[in-house]
Write a structure and sequence with these properties.
Blueprint: E1 7-9, E2 16-18, E3 32-36, H1 41-52, E4 56-61, H2 68-78, E5 83-87, H3 93-100, E6 105-108, H4 115-120, H5 122-143, E7 149-154, H6 179-197, E8 202-207, E9 209-211, H7 223-232, E10 237-240, E11 246-251, H8 252-264, H9 266-269, E12 273-276, E13 283-285, H10 286-297, E14 303-306, E15 315-316, H11 321-327, H12 335-346
Helix pairs in contact: 1-2, 1-8, 3-5, 5-6, 7-10
Length: about 350
């Protein structure tokens, strides 16, 4: 089936929708979820996981990020009857009401994702991350207030942190650093507060470094995938800082399993904040990851060093004990295996 046949521009709206093929209409009993940023790396992984659990997914995305059109084509080819696509933008507040109605959950992944971009254009960063999130919260409050609302926040809300080699707990004071940290941090706090002030079922997930298939990555964001693609193509890398920055790495498949668990346990997760990452067992520094990719691909990585970038954390590892205690969740895919899977996927694309 040609996936482009599933995309149709309506005469009365600028949105694009994929329609289930005739004869494959979704069951009235299946649950429906709106995923903003749904054609991105995380959105597609979440869609696949939730479709496998019986959901119908509506993806809202403006397709501005490289790779999103490719991800979308792949997904709607694989799951045409369980996928609806709407070309839209969370900055368009008036259009959001129609998309949140009749959804059983909202997964908010749309955002401006790079610290470096926020330093160049802080206004757009704010409009997308802070104002866009508030737009979506208001649409849900007014038109679907009981729907679980999951927000993909970031470890950057904690600021630079000292290099103390201690896993970060949710009780760590927030200390926004960079416009990106401010915009995501403001959104993070709005999402949390809508549970308190408006009794909505909102949950904040402060995510660390996520990697996996369908991630194209750049040197500004998605660095594990960026390293993989660059090394496979023998492109030189630039390492900002000394390369000993430590992160805990989480496979997207484990994160998407958590999304489903949070929704299914919304009575105990509403209003909560969870730090989400690979945890101490999956922590690595940049040079270790580069060496490992080189060994697995039989390519010799080429890289040079440049100065530290504003807002970079020298050490960040998530303490994931709260998610384990509340939900019984912890990563199931060790980084060594997840990295091999990412490399295998990257080897199949142009």
């Amino acid at each position: 089936m040609d996936p482009t046949s599933l995309i149709k521009e309506t005469e009365t709206s600028s949105r694009l929708e994929t329609r289930p093929a005739r004869g494959n209409v979704a069951s009235a009993a299946e649950r429906r979820i709106l995923i903003t940023g749904g054609a991105g790396f995380l959105g597609v992984n979440a869609a696949v996981h939730l479709i496998g659990a019986g959901w119908h997914v509506t993806l809202l995305d403006n397709l501005s990020r490289p790779g999103t059109e490719r991800n979308l084509k792949w997904l709607i080819t694989k799951h045409p009857a369980r996928t609806t696509f709407v070309k839209g933008d969370v900055r368009n507040a008036l259009a959001l009401a129609q998309h949140v109605r009749n959804q059983d959950a909202i997964l908010h992944l749309a955002g401006q994702v790079a610290v470096t971009t926020s330093l160049v254009d802080p206004i757009t960063d704010f409009e997308v991350n802070a104002a866009g999130t508030l737009n979506l919260l208001e649409a849900v409050r007014l038109h679907n207030p009981q729907a679980p609302f999951l927000f993909a926040s970031t470890n950057k809300v904690y600021g630079k942190l000292d290099r103390n080699n201690v896993a970060c707990k949710e009780i760590q004071p927030i200390d926004f650093h960079s416009p990106y940290g401010c915009s995501k941090g403001a959104a993070d706090q709005y999402v949390r507060d809508y549970a308190r002030c408006f009794n909505m079922n909102t949950v904040v997930l402060r995510q660390s470094c996520i990697y996996g298939a369908h991630q194209y990555g750049t040197e500004d964001q998605g660095w594990v995938a960026h390293f993989v693609h660059s090394i496979l193509k023998d492109r030189p890398l630039t390492i900002y800082g000394d390369g000993t920055q430590v992160r805990d790495l989480l496979d997207a498949r484990d994160l998407c399993a958590l999304y489903a668990t949070v929704i299914d346990n919304i009575d105990k997760t509403r209003g909560e904040i969870f730090n989400v990452g690979g945890g101490p067992v999956n922590q690595r520094n940049l040079l270790e990851v580069i060496d490992q990719i080189g060994e697995l691909t039989n390519h010799k990585p080429k890289f040079t060093f440049a100065g530290w970038r504003e807002g970079d954390q020298t050490y960040y590892v998530s303490d994931i004990n709260k998610a384990k205690a509340h939900l019984g969740w912890e990563p199931q895919i060790p980084f060594d295996r997840g990295l091999k899977d990412l490399i295998a996927w990257a080897g199949t694309i142009d």
